[in-house]
Amino acid sequence: GYDFWAEWVNNRGGITVGGKKYKVKMIYYDDESNPQTSARLFEKLITQDKVDIILGPYGSGIAMASTTIAERHRYVVILPLNDSDELYNRGYKYIYSVLPIASRDMIPMVDLVRGQTPKPNSIAIIASNSPYPLMCAKGLNEYAKQGGMNVVMYEQFPEETSDLSSLLSLIKTKNPDLLFETGYFEHSVLITRQLKDQRFTPKALAFSVGPQLPDFTKSLGKDADYTMGVAYWHPKMKYKDSAFTIEQYNEMFNRKYGRGPVYLNAYGTAAGRLLETALGIAGSLNQEKIREAMHKIELADTIVGGIKYDEAGRNIWGKTGVLQIQKGQAEIVAPEKAATAKFLYPAVPWEKR
After folding, report:
1. Residue numbers of the domain that contains 142
2. Helix (H) or strand (E) holding 307
3. What is the 3-state secondary structure (H, E, C) of 146-165?
4. For 206, how many CA atoms within 13 A lie in the half-sphere containing its CB?
5. Which residues pair with 16 in a beta bridge?
6. How confident is the model at residue 173 (pLDDT cuts 50, 70, 90)?
7. 64 backbone dihedrals φ, ψ, rounded to 5°
8. Which CATH number fits the domain that encloses residue 287?
């Protein structure tokens, strides 16, 4: 996503800053998914390479360490894929998320299902015991309770588990209308298979990670139908950038790489486009002026939705979409602005599919 943006903007003469054109030069280092390594490399980027701005690493755990270095040097960092609430609760002044914060990720799903008939009244929430899923589940649990829903279960499970049948059997005895899981791909596949084995069909089944990835439907076939997933971004969405639509972005990306973009790429590209906007407003490469410019940004339309920042660097206009698998295809069912299909509810029982 970063590389696509850098080539795209350079082919148009570069970024305009204070009336002068600058070509983008990307410098990459491998942090080996190690927070300490990432922090050391941030120090190198700032003190040795003397870069003008930093586009963040992948993962909130990595960013927790590396952004501490940037904050000490008062360096602006745009974080496209780092959404842990903890990152933005530290009082830092130079970090900016492109994603909405994690605790809000599954809330649009709750809003969607609560507007359906028959209206759901009860929900079970289970989470892998790692930082992102726990943060996501915490926000979901609080929001469901605030909305008057009966949370019949709120439990954690081991991240490395290969069997959740006992937990799912207990959930089945409580018969919730909704089952929401916050975890990762392997968990969503496992849960779907074991729910079918137990012949338990919640009215809606939702996962934080799984349905948005092509391997989910490849692994499950028709059993993937009716499942919901967080849609950070999807190539079918109707969002648009001021310079290109998502359809055009898909075409350009495919021509360059021989495949279509996934959400990781789109958020990387959006971070670059956000940087262009900030530098245009700042008219300078001075970090304080860039920081001031970031807080002036109000983008209603980008390829990932809206962007506007609060004092902590949270994207308060950011909102995840809702994806549902329908006849083996991933469709966007919310928000209406980005939707490609109507939401199917309640789910058809396993034995009738």
Report:
1. 106-235+321-352
2. strand 307-308
3. HCCCEEEEEEEECCCCCCCH
4. 35
5. 21
6. very high
7. -55, -40
8. 3.40.50.2300
Residue 153 gets the label, from left (phi > 0), alpha (psi -120 to 50) or beta, of: beta
**Do 199 and 248 sit in the same domain of this protein?**
no
Looking at residue 332, what is its pLDDT? 94
Q: Would you state the pLDDT for residue 158?
A: 95
Rounded to 5 degrees, what are φ and ψ at 155?
-135, 155
pTM over 0.85: no
Q: How confident is the model at residue 176 (pLDDT cuts 50, 70, 90)?
A: very high
- Which residue in 274, 283, 300, 304 sits closest to 77, CA to CA? 274
Q: What is the DSSP string of 1-43?
A: -HHHHHHHHHTTT-EEETTEEE---------TT-HHHHHHHHH
Name the β-bridge partners of 127: 156, 182
DSSP 240: B
In this structure, is residue 273 part of a structural domain?
yes
**E-assigned strands of 24-172?**
54-55, 77-79, 95-97, 122-128, 150-157
Kindly tell me if the per-residue pLDDT of 118 is higher than 90: yes
Counting every residue, how long is the chain?
Answer: 353
Q: Say if CB 194 and CB 168 are below 8 A apart.
A: yes
pLDDT digits (tens, 9 = 90+) for 145-155: 999 999 999 99
